[in-house]
């Protein structure tokens, strides 16, 4: 290693010899650089968080399942086996709403 010119002012007023300079240079080379940017983006969180990934998958499958039931299977049921047409489909959807209100009302009475 070449001799480095070191000023005493740069090292707290102490004059360093060659061995001290070499050990300090080796120490600086082995220490990893610390980044001050510790912000986490949404995409980094989505790639690393298993809980968030699981929640996304459950939401995806639930939306596909219920969307398929309400937008494909229910109209097919109303027009096919029930032979009810558009009015029957509307009645079935209204029954879903009434059932939801009854469940909410029953839950409030228990509390």
Description:
This protein folds into two domains: 31 residues; 63 residues. 68% of the residues lie in helices and 0% in strands. It is built from four helices and no strands. With 111 residues, it is mostly helical. The radius of gyration is 35 Å and the shape is elongated.
Main attributes of the structure:
mainly alpha, 2 domains, 111 residues, 68% helix
Task: Summarize the model shown.
The protein has 111 residues and is mostly helical. The chain has 4 helices and no strands. The model has no long low-confidence stretch (mean pLDDT 80).
Topology of this protein?
Blueprint: H1 18-30, H2 42-48, H3 50-79, H4 85-110
Helix pairs in contact: 3-4
Report the uncertain regions.
Answer: none
Oligomer: single chain
Q: Mean of the pLDDT scores?
A: 80
Our measurement of the CA-to-CA distance between the termini, rounded to an integer number of angstroms, reads 80 Å
Radius of gyration: 35 Å
> In this structure, how is the largest beta sheet organized?
none
Shape: elongated
